[in-house]
Design brief:
α14 packs parallel to α15. The protein is 58% helix and 10% strand. The chain contains 17 helices and eight strands. β2, α11 and β3 form a beta-alpha-beta unit. Strands 3-2-4-1-5-6-7-8 form an eight-stranded mixed sheet, sandwiched between helices. The structure holds guanosine-5'-diphosphate (GDP) and magnesium ion (MG).
Length: 413
């Protein structure tokens, strides 16, 4: 081969090499643009449901409301059981396995919340140098978390007041104090739940539309039926035809019959009939669904108060428990809702739903701290067994479980 030929060959290689290089760079750029777009789209989705104030929820114009109902009338449907469900419904094998599994499912359910303010705390404490600035940053993290300013303040004051100066420079001391204080806040004193305390035991479920009332009723009915209790459901959300249908689907799944009225009938009369039937047919528990939105906020509250009075008329002492259902994805708006409902109703328990789908689960601290009403159950998914009795210690353990790399990355992004 002559020198010229070698030179041509090298030049040809260089051209091919350059071509390949540019093609690869172009495709990498496209991929990264796509992932940024995906992320932005995801974030936009999250933004949409962020902090929709209850006033807006309850004071919509008729037109807006109808639009919302049309959407809802297609209706959330209970998830059909899948193989995993069937496995779970049959119960888990050994005691230990069940416990481990339970803890890991709770941990999994709370992973998004851990990716939120807990991961931010974790990052704060993973720094090599701990100094006075840390306190300031800690205060900032707490105040921008979804626990609400009142609770952030009380947590922060508790840390400053109870830890020595040395301890305040030690991440482990601060970390364990935060856990301890959180457990104290979450352990709202409450009498044990006793469904056998009345017959039938009347459980009234209230809360704004879409928070998960009907779903939670289905999950609780299934749980009680599994425990051998006879459960009757009252379709008290007579404002929307789809709401009755949705409750009926849950009734079929859990094996609990549903008492319903004619379209648009008075919710109180449906609930009255259900309680009377519950007593006559020897049911253990009657769970009452209610509407989450009427024409105005005042009307809704008046309606709920009336439902309460009618329960007592049907069976003296009823409702035996009134639970407010709150959607954790609405963050601090859930605290506002709780305050509003508490003014009208004697709330004896809270169910916090959708903890699986949000980084705002820290709001549970604010709810317990400000309401002093016990959280009875938490919802960690849409399936029939995605409901957990709320145990403060287990919750704190799962919430402050060491934040792993993946979650930290999620929090940083
Ligand atoms: N991811 C998740 N979704 C839930 C949970 N609880 C309820 N949902 C969903 O929230 C939506 C509204 O629930 P629904 O029971 O109709 O609310 P209601 O209007 O208060 O009766 C439905 O799509 C449910 O599947 C939960 O714990 N986790
Ligand atoms: Mg409903």
């Amino acid at each position: 081969m002559t020198g010229n030929e070698i030179a041509y060959l090298l030049a040809a290689f260089a051209v091919v090499g350059l071509f390949v290089f540019f093609v690869r760079r172009a495709s990498e750029k496209q991929a990264s643009a796509r992932s940024v777009r995906d992320r932005l789209r995801e974030e936009a989705g999250r933004d949409e449901d962020r902090d929709r104030p209850i006033a807006e929820d309850l004071d919509q114009t008729d037109q807006e409301r109808e639009g919302a109902y049309e959407e809802q009338d297609e209706g959330p449907r209970p998830k059909p059981p899948d193989d995993e469900d069937e496995e779970r419904d049959k119960g888990l094998p050994g005691g230990d396995t069940a416990e481990v599994n339970e803890a890991s499912r709770l941990k999994h359910g709370l992973s998004k919340t851990r990716g939120g303010f807990v991961a931010r705390l974790g990052r704060l404490f993973s720094r090599k140098k701990i100094d006075d600035d840390l306190l300031e940053e800690l205060e900032h993290v707490l105040f921008t978390a979804d626990i609400g300013p009142t609770t952030a303040q009380s947590l922060f004051t508790a840390l400053k007041d109870s830890l020595s100066r040395d301890q305040l420079l030690d991440p482990d001391s601060i970390w364990s104090k935060i856990r301890e204080e959180s457990a104290t806040i979450l352990s709202v004193p409450a009498p044990p739940l006793d469904f056998a305390g009345a017959r039938p035991f009347v459980l009234l479920m209230i809360g704004v539309n879409g928070v998960g009332k009907t779903t939670t009723i289905g999950k609780i009915a299934a749980k009680l039926q599994r425990e051998g209790k006879k459960v009757l459901l009252a379709a008290g959300d007579t404002f929307r035809a789809a709401a009755v249908e949705q409750l009926e689907i849950w009734g079929e799944r859990s094996g609990a019959p549903v008492v319903k009225g004619k379209d648009g009938s008075d919710p109180s009369s449906v609930i009255f009939d259900a309680i009377k039937r519950g007593a006559a047919d020897d049911y253990d528990v009657v769970i009452c669904d209610t509407a989450g939105r009427l024409h105005t906020k005042t009307e809704l509250m008046d309606e709920l108060k009336k439902v309460g009075r009618v329960c007592d008329k049907a069976l003296s002492g009823a409702p035996h428990e009134t639970w407010l259902i709150l959607d954790s994805t609405t963050g601090q708006n859930a605290i506002q809702q709780a305050q509003l409902f508490k003014e009208a109703m004697d709330i004896t328990g809270i169910v916090l739903t959708k903890l699986d789908g949000t980084a705002k689960g820290g709001v549970i601290l604010g709810i317990c701290d400000e309401m002093k009403v016990p959280v009875r159950y938490i919802g960690i998914g849409e399936r029939i067994d995605d409901l957990r009795e709320f145990e403060p210690e287990a919750f704190v353990a799962a919430l402050y479980e060491k934040v792993d790399e993946e979650e930290r990355a999620q929090a940083q992004s």
